Amino acid sequence: MNYLRITILLTIFSFAFGCKKDDSFKPSSGYIEPVDFLSDKKYKMLIVEINYVQGYMPTKETVDNIVNFLSTRLNKPKGIKVTMKSIPSPRKSSFSYSDVVYLEKMHRKHFPLGDILTAHILFLDAGYIQDTDNTKYLGIAYGTTSIAIFQKTVSDYSGGITQPTNEVLETTIVNHEFGHVLGLVNNGTSMQTNHQDNDHGHHCDNDECLMYYAMETTDIVGNLVGGNIPGLDQNCITDLKNNGGK
Ligand SMILES: [Zn+2]
Ligand SMILES: [Zn+2]
Question: How far is the CA of 233 from the centre of ligand 2 (A)?
Answer without folding.
Answer: 5
